[in-house]
Design a protein that fits this description.
five-stranded antiparallel beta sheet; 148 residues; 3 helices; disordered N terminus; alpha+beta
């Protein structure tokens, strides 16, 4: 199941919430952040090729924060006991709910908006919300049953 920005598909059942990684990031630290997400996802039991998809999605969202939301952001990566969740926050202008559908182009060749579109098709859950300042983008992928 792929979520759509602005929607909140059912997440994992309540359970342990283990913080795996918490980082402030900028353009200079995006590469290190990708390595950290990859390492944590592997330790959490997310196997390839799904792990690569998740790292790609997190990279797309964090890169968007750097490019469009003031050059920096924060990432919180958690193991929710059945799902790996990444929450990216920034202090940019944010999104209004009427703009969110426009951020998800189809395969029609639109040059912008590919980061959220990519995250939508490579994760099991994606939400985009307005924060007190900026945006909050949350991505989730299910972990293998043996992990839970």
């Amino acid at each position: 199941m792929t979520g759509r920005p602005g929607t909140a598909p059912a997440g994992p059942a309540p359970g342990p919430r283990l913080q795996l990684l918490k980082r402030h990031f900028t353009a200079r630290t995006l590469t290190q952040l990708r390595y950290g997400v990859e390492e944590c996802a592997a330790r959490a039991g997310l196997a390839e090729p799904r792990r690569g998809d998740f790292v790609l999605a997190v990279d797309a969202v964090t890169s968007n924060a750097v490019e469009h939301a003031g050059g920096a952001g924060h990432l919180l990566l958690r193991d929710l006991g059945g799902e790996l969740e990444a929450t990216v926050t920034d202090s940019g202008p944010g999104f209004s709910s009427d703009v969110i559908p426009e951020l998800l182009p189809g395969l029609d060749g639109a040059p912008l908006g590919r980061g959220l579109w990519l995250a939508t098709i490579t994760t099991d859950r994606l939400t985009v919300e307005r924060g007190a300042v900026g945006a909050i983008v949350t991505l989730g992928v299910r972990l293998p049953a043996a992990h839970t």
